[in-house]
Design goal:
Elements: H1 3-9, E1 25-33, E2 36-39, E3 45-47, E4 53-55, E5 59-62, E6 67-72, E7 77-80, E8 85-92, E9 103-116, E10 128-132, E11 135-139, E12 143-149, E13 152-159, E14 161-166, E15 169-174, E16 181-185, E17 188-192, H2 211-222, E18 268-274, E19 277-284, E20 292-297, E21 300-305, E22 322-328, E23 335-339, E24 344-348, E25 351-357, H3 362-365, E26 371-376, E27 380-385, E28 388-402, E29 407-417, E30 420-431, E31 434-444, E32 447-448, E33 455-461, E34 471-479, E35 485-492, E36 494-495
Parallel strand pairs: 9-10
Antiparallel strand pairs: 1-4, 1-6, 2-3, 2-5, 5-8, 6-7, 7-9, 8-9, 9-12, 10-11, 11-14, 12-13, 13-16, 14-15, 16-17, 18-19, 18-25, 19-20, 20-21, 21-23, 22-25, 23-24, 26-28, 26-36, 27-28, 27-35, 28-29, 29-30, 30-31, 31-32, 33-34, 34-35
Length: 510
């Protein structure tokens, strides 16, 4: 009999609030694997499935090879590991009318979790507390992991900081502290250089220490560990690992307002491509059906817009939350660029590709371990061949991204126009602001690519439904050594498994 069913048939420690209160929804399940049970404060049990509510009086139990992800009412996320028991004692939103900051109180009885905290506790840090058998955890706005077993608590901070208060005093991890990882017992604290195996997953692997920083840490280890550590402001001594390529606040991509531009208050990711190259930036909507693109120049903000129609024959992209098209700029109907004061500063008399996308937030990749793969077999879509607009460019390829550090090593892209093929290999970094890709090789027929002028850029795209895998969208311009060019857009669906074609043969199977 598994340990999970042993829990169900023996007496468990149930922590009840000393005062009764109305049961309220604390969050909803966004992913469940294996045997997961919620037990209310009356001892009634129910299995949990995706989209099920979780209440502020539930105790959650996971069995062998089981796990659960919860999205809480304040947009916090929690991934509960196998063989864990977590009691939710209170989860209340703030009430401005009552000058109430809300509160979160949870109890980790056994096992562990990884969490990205939400809005509760960001203003008043005292409003958030997680109790454990060796002390209580407070936060300073963070992503952290804990694991408790055999009277020992392991903790690690991936972003922000935590403080553990126990019988031996107060100990901090993360921002401003000496360590990002530590071991807590009933007798004291031990700082750790690297995350313990119980905490580390492929999505939270630590960035390797440099030799200098490793030496600093070894010196720190030689000093006696004290229950209370100095927690002055400043960056953590350990390099902060990147838990996923997106580290901005949830929904930040749609909350930026440019003052002085009327109703332009919805900022998304934008990509403009012309014969002059890629111009990634933002995109706003001012009530018209056409987007308005923004680029931050040395001289200030530049707005690019087109008063003519978008090409109606453009095939929709394969990824949700992405739109694209062609602006057929000409001398008779140019694409116009303005400064932030509304003054015309430039006109474009040539076709220009455009793409808009809703960027993914940290919530969209939270809980995904290892790597994401993006791959597409292609289809007819807008493009530019030697600066001339076409609607039947086929773009296919893909890449893997390591979510632990945002690294891309194996990207490949092919653009086919009739029997004319362009092929590029690329590598680089995917981060919160987009991508930093370098084209490492490729060809156009017999001609090699001009690596200094060819470019590929893009971003992770928010999935259509919570819990789904993000996509990737962007644009490219490939230029060969004879100054021929191909430019286009691409939107590739994401998937959790890895493995891509590695052949240098760019032609698709027919």
């Amino acid at each position: 009999m598994t340990r999970f069913f042993f829990w169900l048939n023996t007496a468990c420690l149930v922590l009840l609030c000393s005062q009764t209160h109305a049961i309220a929804v604390a969050g909803h399940v966004i992913m469940v694997k294996g045997d997961v049970i919620a037990r209310d404060d009356q001892g009634q049990q129910r299995p949990l499935s995706r989209r099920d509510p979780v209440y502020d009086s539930d105790t959650i139990l996971t069995g062998d090879d089981s796990r659960l992800q919860i999205r809480f009412i304040d947009k916090g996320l929690l991934a509960l590991k196998a063989n864990s028991e977590l009691s939710i004692r209170s989860y209340r939103q703030p009430d401005p009318d009552q000058q109430d900051d809300g509160d979160i109180l949870m109890k980790l009885v056994e096992g562990g979790f990884r969490t990205l905290t939400g809005t509760i506790g960001k203003g008043n840090k005292e409003a958030y507390k997680v109790e454990t058998p060796v002390g209580s955890i407070g936060i300073r706005g963070t992503m952290y992991s804990v694991w408790f077993s055999n009277r020992e608590l392991l903790a690690g901070v991936w972003n922000g900081g935590i403080q553990l208060d126990g019988p031996q005093g107060s100990t901090s991890l993360g921002d401003g502290a000496d360590y990002d990882f530590g071991r807590f017992t009933g007798t004291g604290f031990e700082g750790l250089l690297t995350p313990p195996a119980q905490l580390e997953t492929a999505s939270t692997a630590a960035t390797p220490l440099t030799a200098e920083k490793a030496q600093d840490k070894q010196s720190a280890l030689a000093e006696p560990a004290t229950p209370a550590l100095d927690n002055s402001d400043g960056a953590s001594h350990l390099p902060q690992p990147l838990p996923n390529p997106i580290d901005k606040e949830p929904d930040a991509a749609t909350q930026t307002t440019l003052i002085g531009n009327g109703q332009m208050d919805s900022l998304q990711y934008g990509q403009l491509i012309s014969s002059a190259g890629n111009q990634p930036g933002g995109v706003m909507y001012d009530g018209s059906e056409q987007p308005v693109f923004t680029q931050q120049q040395l001289s200030g903000l530049t707005l690019t817009r087109f008063d003519g129609p978008a090409d109606p024959s453009v095939t929709p992209p394969a990824v949700a939350n992405v739109n694209w098209g062609i602006w057929n700029g000409s001398a008779e109907q140019p694409i116009r660029q303005y400064n932030s004061e509304g003054q015309l500063i430039n006109e474009i008399h040539e076709p220009l590709l455009w793409l808009t996308a809703n960027p993914a937030s940290s919530l969209d990749v939270f809980g995904i371990n290892g790597s994401l793969s993006f791959y597409s077999e292609g289809g007819a879509q807008p493009g530019l061949i030697n600066g001339e607009a076409v609607n039947d460019l086929t773009v296919f390829g893909g890449f893997d991204v390591n979510l632990a550090n945002g690294r891309v090593n194996d990207g490949n892209l092919t653009a086919a126009y009739g029997d004319d093929y362009w092929y590029a290999r690329f590598a680089g970094q995917l981060n919160s602001s987009g991508s930093d890709f370098q084209i490492t090789g490729g060809n156009h027929g017999e001609a090699t690519l001009n690596l200094d002028q060819s470019t590929i850029t893009g971003i992770l795209v928010a999935p259509q439904e919570p819990g789904s895998v993000p996509g990737f969208a962007g644009g490219f311009q490939l230029i060969d050594q004879l100054d021929n060019s191909a430019a286009g857009l691409f939107a590739w669906p994401g998937r959790i498994d890895s493995g891509l074609p590695t052949s240098d043969n760019p032609e698709p199977q027919r």
